[in-house]
Amino acid sequence: MTNPVSPIAAWESLFRAQVAVMRQIASEFPSDVISLNEYDVLFTLTLSENRTLRIRELSESVLLTQPSISRLVDRLAARGLVSKLTDPTDGRGTLVALTEDGFSLFRDAARIHGRSISGRMTAALEPDELTELARLTRKLYDSVTSS
């Protein structure tokens, strides 16, 4: 029988693994085409209805501050990867919509990024362990977002 792990030790293990894996994956990311932060915004838009979100909703879903999101969206719009629109339901709000060019660039980067993630995860974990990892992290996430 194994000794129980403290919550702090479990957190430390999760955190260190996440940082190490993210560093490796970031080093393999096609950053000559798009940055990880830009990818995160485009990825988040692909998950939304009509590939469009209010800028406020976008900032709640990515790991950047509101001013940083606004500047990043401006840069993506200048490149034709997103469009900024006035929210028809609230003239003060701004909608961010993924363009076809933005979706195409995202899809190309996602293929490379996905291969990197899959390679890293399957090199370390068996299929049943991947399932268990997803179950545990989803449970942890849900405990934080539902409170």
Helix content: 55-70%
Q: What's the rounded overall pLDDT mean?
A: 92
CATH architecture: Orthogonal Bundle
Low-confidence stretches: none
**CATH superfamily annotation:** Winged helix-like DNA-binding domain superfamily/Winged helix DNA-binding domain
Record the strand order, biggest sheet.
1-3-2
Task: Give the class-level CATH name.
Answer: Mainly Alpha
Q: Give the CATH topology.
A: Arc Repressor Mutant, subunit A
* Alpha-carbon distance between the two ends: 34 Å
Give the SSE order as H and E letters. HHEHHEEHH
Strand elements, count: 3
Q: Tell me the number of helical segments per DSSP (H or I, 4 or more residues long).
A: 6
**How many strands, what sense, and barrel or not for the largest sheet?**
3 strands, antiparallel
